[in-house]
């Protein structure tokens, strides 16, 4: 058997754990329930309901990645702008020191 690790949204994790605790599971764990659901989904992968579920998950993941990417880029640009402003301020201070007459001149 092979192992695979997946990340589940909190609500799906909670639903999986609640469903695994159901007496109809006959003491099965969340992992066993997940394995059964994956096997069922693969056996019925061509069915419209399964295809729709796949499209929903793919769409949700794309939207999440876009949000994360946008946030990261906004943070990078903010850091870049801060760096540019700091460099300008440093350059202006250096120029001002050059223009200021020294004592005794």
TrEMBL record:
Indicate, by first and last residue, each region the UniProt record lists as having compositional bias (Basic residues): 95-105
The ranges of region (Disordered) come to: 81-105
User: Basic and acidic residues bias: where?
Assistant: 81-94
Protein name per its UniProtKB record: Uncharacterized protein
Q: Which organism is it from?
A: Gordonia spumicola
